[in-house]
């Protein structure tokens, strides 16, 4: 049996260079605003995860299946179509906060927005805090080691 290799790993790529490479000026502006909000709210420095996700903090997960890996606690990615926000799924509080968040859609683990003007920044900060708290309770023996 081959060991699963996580596709999205922390890299040494520059967060600022990545944001500067975003084609849309509006998306770049929103990315800088999100960078400030996520850093200030999470207390973590931004790091690139894979080629296009800006992540904050990290945790080590291990599933009952034996699959394990590292992931960012929270993050975002200014993609061409929409901005993807990464919060931990599986907590009922996330769903409650999303009711007050503003214009968005959700996928399995992502929350998608068109622009920051569509959402409530105070609820974004609550979502960041809630997601970090949830993951740190779910995986309590985590210390950032990388």
What attributes does this structure have?
globular, single chain, about 150 residues, Aspartate Aminotransferase, domain 1, alpha+beta
In short, what is this structure?
Helices cover 34% and strands 21% of the residues. It has 146 residues and is α+β, with helices and mostly antiparallel strands.
Walk me through what this model shows.
The chain is α+β, with helices and mostly antiparallel strands and 146 residues long. It has one domain: Aspartate Aminotransferase, domain 1 (Alpha-Beta Complex). Helix content is 34%, strand content 21%. The protein has 4 helices and 8 strands; from the N terminus they run ααββββββαββα. The strands form 2 sheets. A 6-stranded antiparallel beta sheet has the order 1-2-5-6-8-7. Strands 3-4 form a two-stranded antiparallel ribbon. A hairpin with a 5-residue loop joins strand 3 and strand 4. The radius of gyration is 15 Å and the shape is globular. The chain starts with 14 loop residues before the first helix and ends in an 8-residue tail after the last helix. The model has no long low-confidence stretch (mean pLDDT 90).
């Amino acid at each position: 049996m081959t060991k699963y290799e996580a596709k999205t790993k922390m890299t040494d790529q520059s967060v600022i260079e990545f944001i500067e490479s975003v084609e849309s000026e509006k998306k770049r502006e929103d990315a800088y605003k999100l960078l400030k909000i996520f850093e200030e709210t999470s207390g973590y420095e931004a790091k690139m995860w894979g080629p296009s996700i800006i992540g904050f903090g990290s945790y080590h997960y291990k599933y009952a299946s034996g699959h394990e890996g590292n992931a960012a606690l929270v993050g975002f990615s200014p993609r061409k179509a929409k901005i993807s926000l990464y919060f931990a799924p599986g907590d009922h509080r996330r769903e409650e906060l999303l009711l007050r968040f503003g214009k968005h859609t959700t996928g399995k683990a992502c929350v998608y927005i068109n622009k920051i003007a569509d959402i409530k920044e105070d609820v974004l900060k609550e979502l960041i805090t809630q997601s970090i708290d949830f993951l740190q309770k779910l995986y309590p023996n985590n210390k950032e080691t990388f």
